[in-house]
């Protein structure tokens, strides 16, 4: 199984990348409990910013960007994390998903997350990020994870789970969807199967 985390953090290190790593770890742990092997990869959009901009105006992805797009579209599950910019996802985050074929994420399990300086922006996940992936016909898990600066190391209260508990719950939801999803078929296998089918139809 393949898990890909997309981080749109702009600094290095960044809280966005840290959240992506923790969510990916939670998904891996949950899948391990279920007896599933998973490989995890992180796509750092910061390193691809120039390639993304060039692709938007030329229509041709550079090799590094093409590899990142292939990793995302070929994954069995995605963790996507954006910093909050002007009460929405970042332009870099949106631009990356703009260069992906609109049909490529249909049915793919996605865990959506965001980081910001204050809890006031937490609804960005519901009014911006979730609708984006609903439009792409991805399957977004119920628990979206928002991490404000004050959430790191906090344990929550009687009304709200702490960040660690939310990460664990969201990771479990994505792992469940990935484990129940039918295995993806390599297009090359389809070609081989078709050739065999046609061969079987031939008569001597």
What can you see in these coordinates?
With 204 residues, this protein is α/β, with parallel strands linked by helices. The chain has one domain (2-201): Rossmann fold. 46% of the residues lie in helices and 18% in strands. It has seven helices and seven strands; from the N terminus they run βαβααββαβαββαα. It has helices spanning 15-33, 49-58, 63-73, 91-98, 124-135, 163-180, 187-201, and strands at residues 2-7, 39-44, 77-85, 88-89, 109-116, 139-140, 145-148. Strands 1, 2, 3, 4, 5, 6 and 7 form a seven-stranded mixed sheet that branches. Helix 1 (15-33) packs across helix 6. The mean pLDDT is 89.
Low-confidence stretches: none
**What's the alpha carbon Rg, rounded to whole Å?**
19 Å
Number of domains: 1
Tell me, briefly, the overall form: globular
Overall structural class, as computed from helix and strand content, comes to alpha/beta
Q: What's the CATH C level?
A: Alpha Beta
Largest sheet: 7 strands, mixed
Q: Could you say what the CATH topology is called?
A: Rossmann fold
Superfamily at the CATH H level?
A: Flavodoxin domain
Looking at the overall shape, the CATH architecture is 3-Layer(aba) Sandwich
**Number of discrete helical segments:** 7
Distance between the termini: 42 Å
Mean pLDDT: 89
Order of helices and strands: EHEHHEEHEHEEHH
Helix content: 40-55%
Number of strands: 7
Strand fraction band?
A: 15-25%
């Amino acid at each position: 199984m393949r898990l890909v985390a997309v981080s749109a953090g702009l600094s290095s290190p960044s809280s966005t990348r840290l959240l992506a790593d923790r969510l990916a770890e939670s998904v891996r742990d949950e899948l391990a409990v279920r007896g599933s092997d998973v490989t995890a990869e992180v796509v750092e959009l910061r390193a691809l910013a120039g390639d993304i901009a060039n692709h938007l105006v030329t229509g041709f992805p550079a090799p590094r960007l093409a590899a990142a797009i292939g990793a995302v579209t070929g994954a069995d599950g995605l963790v996507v994390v954006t910093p909050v910019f002007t009460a929405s996802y970042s332009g870099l985050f949106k631009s990356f998903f703009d260069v992906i074929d609109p049909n490529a994420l249909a049915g793919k399990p996605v865990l959506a997350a965001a980081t910001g300086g204050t809890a006031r922006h937490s609804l960005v996940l519901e009014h911006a990020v979730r609708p984006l992936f609903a439009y792409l016909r991805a399957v977004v898990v119920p628990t979206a994870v928002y991490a404000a600066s004050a959430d790191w190391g906090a344990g929550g209260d009687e009304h709200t789970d702490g960040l660690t508990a939310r990460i664990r719950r969201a990771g479990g939801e994505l792992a469940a969807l990935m484990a129940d999803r039918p295995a993806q078929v390599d297009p090359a296998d389809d070609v081989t199967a078709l050739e065999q089918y046609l061969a079987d139809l031939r008569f001597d």
